[in-house]
Design goal:
- A hairpin with a 2-residue loop joins strand 4 and strand 5.
- The protein has three domains: 115 residues, Orthogonal Bundle (Butyryl-Coa Dehydrogenase, subunit A, domain 1); 103 residues, Butyryl-CoA Dehydrogenase, subunit A, domain 2, CATH 2.40.110; 147 residues, Butyryl-CoA Dehydrogenase, subunit A, domain 3 (Up-down Bundle), CATH 1.20.140.10.
- The protein has 382 residues and is of the alpha+beta class.
- The longest helix has 35 residues.
- The strands form three sheets. The protein has a four-stranded mixed sheet, covered by helices on one side. Strands 2-3-7-6 form a four-stranded antiparallel sheet, with no helix packed on it. Strands 9-10 form a two-stranded antiparallel sheet.
- It has eleven helices and ten strands.
- Helix 1 packs parallel to helix 4, helix 7 runs parallel beside helix 9 and helix 8 runs antiparallel to helix 9.
- The structure holds flavin-adenine dinucleotide.
- This is Acyl-CoA dehydrogenase family protein.
Length: 382
């Protein structure tokens, strides 16, 4: 299991235990998870249980209530979450990176432990109706008022926006793009739940800020450093997204195979057809390639190398692999898969969301192309 990531005996043992724990969690709570997914409801009690088990704070040091792990632990947990259809800790992990990279001691003391244990729910309020892939059209503003800031703006697509205790709000200040850690109980904040097709366990919301007053100590990183605070997190969290995609693809393939190996059609089973076998081989190969690229990026990240190209490549491969595996699963199960009480359409919808959120497929390709075209000999490309 995860042979490339098992760099020593302790890590191998941890990976085995984590994978078994998360599989058992999925089995124990399958009915509740499926019901919450159908209703588009955040299962807070299951989320905090995952936190208690130690699976929400992979990157957080033990003294702050986290696992004290590295990127390898983060990607293993993310893949197993996708593979067993669990409530995702992806947004929490992003919050952890933001805080660890840029947080003051006061900010870390206030929020890090809660986010790592699931007692405090984190969200990121970045996208707006007219500002998604590009920040250029962002309209939210941060205006200094004495020693405070007044934050105003309308955010959309915010996972856990109506369920969170703290959000990271991006706005344009005089100095440029700036991020703020905002307590959601402050006056001037309203939220409205929205209804995404996928990742419904961490449902989305529109989040409205109307002159929300925050002290300067709520600012995360220097004023004007918003792009740096954003990229320092997303260059790594792409691996979490890639891993969830790989897990979702594996889940689709595994469930499809479980059905198809016993489903008889004429005088054979579905998996007896060579055309089906080749689809399975191709889907497995794509998942394997994505996993290896993901593992390579994770290990390079743990060595402290610049991993932006590696993580982007891994997400790009993971999107294709997950879509291919999902498509193959539909071929394995035929009409049986085309009902909402079977899991295949939820899996497909989760894949479609992860294809866009956290940097879309097209943005991944733009970045890869830019790096390749700027390095014609390809010597600096990892
Ligand atoms: C379910 C869900 C959850 C989300 N969660 C969050 C969240 O928690 N917080 C948050 O802030 N945001 C969140 N997002 C927003 C997400 O990050 C954006 O949807 C994403 O960045 C794309 O922006 P957009 O949808 O506005 O598409 P646009 O930027 O309008 O792009 C539209 C299409 O054009 C393509 N495109 C854009 N630019 C280029 C280009 N230069 N070259 C080629 N193609 C291009 C895009 O890939 C896309 O296919 C979420 C989105 C969804 C759907």
């Amino acid at each position: 299991m995860y042979p490339t990531l098992c760099t020593d005996a302790a890590k191998a043992a941890w990976i085995e235990t984590a994978a078994a724990d998360l599989a058992a969690f999925g089995e124990r709570h399958r009915k509740e998870l499926d019901a919450a997914n159908r209703d588009g409801r955040f299962p807070k009690e299951l989320y905090t249980e995952l936190g208690r088990l130690g699976y929400l704070g992979p990157l957080v040091p033990v003294e702050y209530g986290g696992l004290g792990g590295g990127i390898a632990e983060y990607v293993v947990i993310s893949e197993e979450v996708g593979r067993h259809g669990l409530v995702s800790g992806q947004i929490a992990a992003q919050g952890q990176r933001w805080l660890l990279n840029w947080g003051t001691e006061e900010q870390k003391d206030r929020w890090l432990r809660g986010i790592a244990t699931g007692e405090a729910v984190f969200s990121e309020s970045i996208s707006e109706k007219n500002a998604g892939s590009s920040f250029k059209a962002m309209k939210s503003t941060a205006v200094r008022d004495g020693g405070d800031w007044l934050l105003t703006g309308s955010k959309t697509h915010v996972n856990l926006g109506a369920d969170c205790d703290v959000t990271l709000f991006y706005a344009i200040a005089e100095e440029g793009l700036t991020s703020f850690l905002v307590d959601m109980s402050l006056p001037g904040i309203t939220t409205a739940v929205t209804d995404p097709v996928g990742l419904r366990l961490i449902r989305t919301a529109d989040v409205e800020f109307d002159r929300v007053r925050v002290p300067d100590s709520a600012r995360l990183g220097p004023a004007g450093a918003g792009l740096r605070t954003f990229l320092s997190t997303f260059n790594i969290s792409r691996l979490g997204n890639a891993s969830e995609l790989i897990g979702l693809g594996r889940r689709a393939l595994e469930l499809g195979l479980r059905y198809a190996t016993t489903r008889e059609v004429g005088d054979t089973t579905v998996t007896g057809f060579q055309g089906i076998q080749w689809m399975v081989a191709d889907a497995w190969t794509a998942l394997q390639a994505a996993s290896l690229a993901r593992d390579d990026a994770a290990l390079a990240g743990e060595r402290g190398e610049d991993v932006a190209l590696r993580t982007t490549t891994a997400k790009r491969l993971a999107i294709t692999a997950a879509e291919q595996a999902s498509d193959t699963a539909y071929s394995l199960v035929g009409g049986h898969g085309l009902y909402f009480d079977t899991p295949y359409t939820d899996i497909l919808h989760d894949i479609k969301v992860l294809k866009v959120a956290g940097g879309s497929n097209e943005i991944m390709r733009n970045y890869i192309a830019r790096r390749v075209l700027n390095d014609p000999g390809h010597e600096g490309l990892a």
